[in-house]
Amino acid sequence: MTQPVDTLVRGTLVNVNTGNLEERPVAIDDGTIVALDERPAERELHANYIAPGLIDAHMHVESSMVTLPQYADAVVPNGVTSVVHDPHEIANVIGATGVRAVIQDAEQTPLKARFTVPSSVPASDLQDGGATLPPDLVTALLEEPNVVALGEVMDIPGLLAGDEDVHAKVRAARERGLTVDGHMPRVTGDDLQEAARYLDNDHESITLAEAREKADVGLHVYLREGSSSKNLAELLPLTEEVDTRRLSLCTDDREVTDIVDRGGIDFAVRKAIQEGADPVEAVQMATINTAENYDLPFGKVEPGAPADLVLLEELDSWRVDDVLIDGELNPTEDGHTPSPTNIPTDTVEFPSVSAPDLAITAPDGHGRGAHVRVIDAVGGLQTEPMIAEVPVRDGTLTPKPNEDLLSLAVIERHGGKGGIGRGFVHGLGLDRGAVGSTIAHDAHNCVVAGADYTAMAAVANKLKELDGGVVAYDPVDDEFASLALPVAGLMSSEPIETVYEQFETVESHAARIGMAETGLMELSFLALEVIPTYRLTNNGLVDVTDGKYVDVTVSEHTEEQGPDADRRSIPDDSVSEP
Amino acid sequence: MTQPVDTLVRGTLVNVNTGNLEERPVAIDDGTIVALDERPAERELHANYIAPGLIDAHMHVESSMVTLPQYADAVVPNGVTSVVHDPHEIANVIGATGVRAVIQDAEQTPLKARFTVPSSVPASDLQDGGATLPPDLVTALLEEPNVVALGEVMDIPGLLAGDEDVHAKVRAARERGLTVDGHMPRVTGDDLQEAARYLDNDHESITLAEAREKADVGLHVYLREGSSSKNLAELLPLTEEVDTRRLSLCTDDREVTDIVDRGGIDFAVRKAIQEGADPVEAVQMATINTAENYDLPFGKVEPGAPADLVLLEELDSWRVDDVLIDGELNPTEDGHTPSPTNIPTDTVEFPSVSAPDLAITAPDGHGRGAHVRVIDAVGGLQTEPMIAEVPVRDGTLTPKPNEDLLSLAVIERHGGKGGIGRGFVHGLGLDRGAVGSTIAHDAHNCVVAGADYTAMAAVANKLKELDGGVVAYDPVDDEFASLALPVAGLMSSEPIETVYEQFETVESHAARIGMAETGLMELSFLALEVIPTYRLTNNGLVDVTDGKYVDVTVSEHTEEQGPDADRRSIPDDSVSEP
Known about the structure:
By secondary structure, the first copy, chain A, is an alpha+beta fold.
């Protein structure tokens, strides 16, 4: 006589253990799968297909601009029941406190978030972020609940050169039996072989050859389908070339619009199938493969596993009817209210600014114009160095919007040592006004670009007033469009649909004043001082090629002195000291 | 400029990560694989194929009758570089002390032995073994180095009934993130579904349907190729039906003759390929699949992994040229001497016996013969109940070798509470003399069968003198043939070839006095009181069907009283009290 259970689900099971589709009921009791067989049940559910809940192998919730509880409400209905979350941006703002807070957030949501401890905070010592995570803090965080890995190790040169801090973090993870995530864009050949000794996986491949080389040296390869990095279609033929058990799907950075319009990691599963992947293998890449990589207790449908199930109308299009997490049906629906966040909401702190604070004093001996170094935002996240002439008015260098030469300022916003970096940017397209954001990778200072210093100061002060966010300002009607992101200055506690609408409003407003389509996204990377070529930090303009500050103004002898002229290790007067 | 390394191996790599054969050199430095690529090297090795060292997923070294260091010398040259060893027999003799000793043994051999903690010691409370492992001791042993799992859980009825001791052991393993090995012969349907909630794997399948059912419910299925259980050929079609990542190869119990003549787990790989398995999948089943199941750091060839490699002349026939472990070439050859064992060698302790000690007093009112219950050894490990008439001489029941009715005695040999169980056995075939062994699953008391009590006493005393072993005695020329197994009374510290020869000598001697071909093996299971039907323990004859002692002598009214007559819970006079 078989024991009665509380729930029986009937349908075709996507058995990720065997790789087969099987007619097989799933019996659930008290949140756990107790049998793959008939049982008398209080409740029967029917589905065309039953799959394990999906796992996003690597993601940063910050990219969605909502908190983890709100993110859960957005993706759980799509069949995403777990994410492996690297709180890299939160850590750059609030350090270990932030990491602990987001781990607490996860305990209050049905989504099973697991965590990797950010390994590369700060990105460099050229900028002042809100916090750093030295090896001792990383080690302490590795002991926190639901931590499954050391987060993506980005400092590959340091790793290869034997940098003690990098290796201390890797060792700390290994000693605890945890996975070590890699971040190896375009790392190849000898460097890849060496890095693979220490790292377990990589999600940065953009070509099939790159992914194949990584798989061959034993790395677990993640096929990424994010917002700016959509690599899945290119990499999918790898499933024909190597044992798929060591392939996973991830989103990495996926923006609010993509999540609302297309979904999270469920979109990657759907797309993989549409692109020709075997449906069961596609599901395996977002369930058991990832679970095995991080030693997660779910991601499969078998007796003893938690009842995290997706009930599908159709497998190939990933059309979801219902979702169970620990046996609970559609846990984010019907009166469910996402929990408030534990992450601080008062992280934007700097003295109010006025136009002169953001202006660059013209060098001695200028005429009516001066040559300056300009960050040329050429598309994607890339920048090129550029030299241009800008007008001098009242002793200051001023933007020249009719030639798309805008002023740029990066204001230290963590209540630290202060400092405002000033410079010029080309490519954002503003005709008037200003835009700004407290999302400014990785230090997440306050970045503002504008056609005049007054508008820029207004935007900066608005961002301060909001405790962070994204703002566009049109001086013609003195109107702001704002998305408040008070959670670490990166995220909102509002529902994702609200954030989506407000973000669209800011984008429209920015477009009205002339901003290029991808301008807001590019803006948030203009301060990332580890991607070539020019970037602006709160300490001044950086030439990433050699990791040195450079003057904004070009001295008269530059051409004679060659390209290395004006290199310096301390900021010039385009930076205000605190 | 690439760093020079100490060793470069050239050949076709069996890449178990990708599932492909690839032309790819393996660069090794200081025992670790540092690259799958060209490197300047102090030493170059060439092979037709390079595979990771093989792992036996489940084995008991005791079955080989040699210590782990000697076992290593036997199998490492075949490309076996690791075993997952369940010291179940050692634990039955010397408990936690024995488990700790064999773990110490492993530290002194190149073979990378990992351990599972025996979960089912004793097999029952009907017999007195040398030691027990209650939950607290099991829990303590789970903390020992190189322990990777709770050993095969045999008490499935207890598990299903919620037995607290069984579940305490399972929980202790789970809390430590360790695997839980199963032992589920013929467990099916609801029982299997329930057992699968707690257990991770099983190696007991004998039919394809049985194995398939286990795979379907998420169990990692081991295809076994032991000495008495050769299941590989039957189960191999499973590789066509399910994702092979969750299949492994194991030997379980493999005897000295098979190991010397055919090999260890390497034989299973060879046989799988011969039976039609894809060679790379066959290697995966004895390397990465097992490594992932137990979270072992080897079993794959990739940068960062230990250099455990098999250099093969031919892949399909698994013809081995050389073996590296941690980069050391053929570590068991050239002047290598296996370490002495840490396991006690003085475990056979009982007072010397004489013929009357082993004889059964005839019941009152007997004539010249009496009816007795006989263990009928029908082949394999099975026994059937049998009733026969034996002669009465001088007031004792005596064997009747001309009808293959031999006397049997089980002497408590652990220096415990003593007790000699006495009975009769049919099917061993002895014409004269006696045979005996201190290998007597699971309690490993001293078991002796013979055509007369004097010969039996001589054999028992010889076993005591040897500190354990296997002995055959021919009274015609008063000659013993002996294999001394002083290590826990189960194993020898001598090289496996020596043990092989001595065992052959004992077998020949036993054959000379009429013993059936498989008699010695059957003898060592006649005391295993958990396999139906009749078994003899040191406490008397047991009917395993209901786990009760029964009288050897059949009372006159038995037929009228039905089959349950003579059931009792305390031994009768066929058992000597201490």
